[in-house]
Specification:
4-stranded antiparallel β-sheet, 3-stranded antiparallel β-sheet, extended, 1 helix, mainly beta, Deoxyuridine 5'-Triphosphate Nucleotidohydrolase, Chain A, about 130 residues, single chain, about 30% strand
Length: about 130
């Protein structure tokens, strides 16, 4: 919506309003298909206003659109709120961010190599909140 916005608004493309009951999920069509250049992806991200005001968000955030996908973009919305939520044609339902992809190759290993030690706190394999509150 602004010149410095990272995301492009995705809007619902519907023939009739779509009601999302609390706890339910739907795939909302956007009427949009894109052709990304090789080495890029698009991420479908939630809109903070929908999440804050209604508890409605993108289920698989961020959803990934690969450079070779040519179908219609659909947004997987879930209603975490307490009340039904209705999506109408033209409603802004998500945002799309395009980014470069860094190619990597993985190799199988019998054991993990010793990590290189760098300045700062030592990290192990604790994961999931192991570095503090």
């Amino acid at each position: 919506m602004t010149g410095h916005a990272a995301g492009h608004d995705l809007v619902a493309c519907l023939d009739a309003p779509l009601r999302i009951e609390p706890g339910k999920r739907v795939a909302v069509p956007t009427g949009l298909a894109i052709a990304l250049p090789p080495g890029h992806e698009a991420q479908v991200r939630p809109r903070s206003g929908l999440a804050w005001k209604h508890g409605v968000t993108v289920l698989n955030a961020p959803g990934t659109i690969d450079a070779d996908y040519r179908g219609e973009i659909r947004v997987l919305l879930i209603n975490h709120g307490d009340a039904p939520f209705t999506v109408a044609h033209g409603d802004r339902i998500a945002q799309l961010v395009v980014a470069e992809v860094v190619p990597v190759q993985f190799e199988a290993a019998r054991a993990l190599p010793e990590p290189e030690r760098t300045a700062g706190p030592e990290r192990g394999d604790g994961g999931f909140g192991s570095t503090g509150r």
